[in-house]
Design brief:
The protein is an alpha+beta fold.
Length: 100
């Protein structure tokens, strides 16, 4: 699952991860988190500012291979960013006010 929100256009993009114990033991959770962090690096390179993204790893992610995990991440990211862009009215400034 992936959630995204707009931040001020001059703020750097931030990505956070939620990897619960339901994903697996500590080794499995850290592996999933490292893989997701690497997959998210491409998103940050493409969108260096203006986004806050949260990735919630589901239990099946522990059994996913690298190409499958990247594909799932990219699909979720594209869908979420498309929805965000379609509903984009204005980005909030540093005080949280929407500016046109």
């Amino acid at each position: 699952m992936l959630y995204a929100a707009l931040s001020a256009a001059d703020e750097p993009t931030k990505v956070g991860f939620i990897v619960a114990k339901t994903v697996g033991n500590a080794v499995a959770r850290n592996l999933v988190k490292r893989r997701l962090r690497e997959a998210a690096a491409a998103t940050v390179r493409q969108n260096p500012a203006g986004l806050n993204i949260v990735v919630r790893a589901l239990p099946v992610s522990a059994g996913s291979c690298w190409p499958e995990l990247v594909k799932d991440y990219q699909n979720a990211c594209l869908k979420t960013l498309d929805r965000l862009a379609a509903g984009r009215v204005a980005a909030p400034d540093k005080e949280g006010n929407n500016t046109p």
